[in-house]
Amino acid sequence: MHGTYFRPDVWVAGALVKKGYLTVDESAQEFVVTQDGWGFVADTLEALLK
Hints:
Elements: H1 10-19, E1 22-25, E2 30-33, H2 35-49
Antiparallel strand pairs: 1-2
């Protein structure tokens, strides 16, 4: 997903930041997925595959 532009909904992005799944890189003006965030993505994808 590197180099891909996403524009998330402000409420969704805020919730993901509060949960610790995303951080905000102010200098680059972008969101960064945390280790916990990648775990959340993996768990979600696994659940969808079942």
